[in-house]
Amino acid sequence: MKSIYDFSYDQLIEMCLANDFKKYNANQIFSWLYRKRVTDYDKMTDISKNLRQFLKENYSIGTLETLQLQISKDSTRKYLFRLADGSSIEAVLMHYDYGNCICVTTQVGCNMGCTFCASGLLKKQRDLTSGEMVQQVLTVQKDIDQSDKRISHIVVMGTGEPFDNYDNVINFLNTVNHDLGLGIGARHITISTCGLAEGIRRFAQEKTQYNLAISLHAPNNEIRNQIMPINKAYPIEKLMEALKYYTSINNRRLSFEYILLQGVNDTDSCVDQLVELTRDFDVYVNLIPYNRVDEKGYVSTDYKSAMAFYDRLMRKNVRCTLRQKMGDDIDAACGQLRSKYEREKINE
User: Which of 193, 214, 268, 277 is the most exposed place for a label (fewest CB within 10 A)?
Assistant: First the structure.
């Protein structure tokens, strides 16, 4: 059964009109779903019994089943959810001075094959629907409602490649951004790609205020080919061409995500090459300490070396930050909790 959360606001209007209901009914339904966060059609008391019965018979409603919840000493909350078909996915809630940020998953498993990432330990099984992404946000929001906290930021950086599930991701973003939805500002929403050039070009045409982040992680093709197989299809030259196209249309600042891996991409030479790559862009570089994944064998750059990398970039006028390491005492790496859960399930 299709989920009611799969509908964007405009699609919900179309559905209501196509079934001889009124446009204002879409407003009512949207308000009940996202403002009041009701998960029972019978509680939508200002909607006719006829419409409520129609919704019951045709569209599922409800939050996700939480299989596991890990809470870090820094208050990071990592959720393992079960979907309707039995698949499991992760979402993470992180607390910052500026607000509460949820990291959303877009696919069951991942085929991008980044050699440092736990997400690729389990290959892609399918794309998530937009409703399944919406439900991640709603389920976490309902969990923190009791403490009067609100999700203020979204990063689409969980398991999967967002631009490999383009239509559903955009539909999801438009729902959580909508004034009658969760009302999360577009400038508080970031979508990350490992470098699908066609997706970047298509995203440029959306002309939205959503932020674009690039999972770069290496300043040259030699290193990037080793740690990110997608680079063989979209080498840095093609990626940079797509980014120039994007910025020519949107005039928006980019973010480059750069996980620091000891002895791999953290040398002075890497800094200098990264400076050259960013020269033609309004860009902010997020340097990220690596959350160790036992199966991968990589080690995070130590703090002193990471600060030296940061200082060298700053001296060369590249705006950057060294991200605070979060969730280090739980299964914080993307895909790590799900991978452990699936292995244990097989071994039972």
Answer: 268
Give the bridge partners for 71, in sequence order. Answer: 77
Contact predicate 176/154, CB 8 Å? yes
As a CATH number, domain 65-347 is 3.20.20.70
The amino acid at 79: Y
Q: CB count, 10 Å around CB of 116?
A: 21
Q: Which amino acid is at 105?
A: T
Residue extents of the structural domains in the chain: 2-60, 65-347
DSSP percent split of the chain into helix, strand, coil, nearest 5: 45, 20, 35
> Average pLDDT in the 73-97 region?
94
CATH number listed for the domain at residues 2-60: 1.10.150.530
What would the pLDDT profile of 185-223 be if each residue is shown by its tens digit? 999 999 999 999 999 999 999 999 999 999 999 999 999
Q: pTM above 0.85?
A: yes
**Selected catalytic residue, list 16, 194, 270, 334:** 334
- Residue of 16, 90, 194, 257 marked catalytic: 90
- CA-to-CA distance for 227 and 114, rounded, in angstroms? 6
CA dihedral (48, 41, 168, 178) positive or negative: positive
Residue carrying structure tokens 């438009």:
174
Strand partners, 102: 93, 154
Task: Quickly state the pLDDT bin for 148 (edges 50, 70, 90).
Answer: confident
CA dist 61 and 40 (Å) reads: 7
- 334 classed as catalytic: yes
Q: How many residues does the chain have?
A: 348
**Mean of all residue pLDDT scores within the chain:** 93
